[in-house]
Input
Amino acid sequence: MNRKTALLRTVSVILILFFSIFCCGCVDNKPISEKELIRLHIRADSNDSVDQSVKLKVRDDIVAYLAQKNKDVDTYSQAYQSLQGDLDVLQSIANSRLKSEGMSYSATVLLTVEYFPTRKYGDVVLQSGYYNALIINLGSGKGDNWWCVVYPPLCYLEATDDFRYKSKIMELIEKYF
Output
């Protein structure tokens, strides 16, 4: 590679990085309002390993449904209304999984306000307090639980281990340099 090509690549990388940093500052980085959060709380029937395993399968089914259904939801109000309209569907999803796993109990689903302890989701820390929540009790709901945030969609980050943000700029840099 000659000097001119190397210099051109270096300048291109610097410009791409500069614009990447500049554009990141353009993104709407307003803080998450705790009044505009909807949390998800799935409670297992018991701490028995089978009940805990089933809880995670129900979680996967519910989160997959919500990720697909709410991919175009932009506001708290839209998310809340969508969940209100889907309570029966969500209960059916949970009950279908419980039935397929041979469980003798069923699920109850409600949208309410509930107390949550302080919790960290990636770089976001949510302080303890009362939050709007989608509650899914499996059977008695007395076992260990799993929770996340449905809106804004922090569950979807936590629920898939292979989830990564993509950057077209970084893909170009990696492709050509």
Remarks:
- The chain has two domains: 3-29+167-176, 35-159.
- The two ends are 12 Å apart (CA to CA).
- Confidence is low (pLDDT under 50) at residues 17-32, 157-177.
- The chain has six helices and six strands.
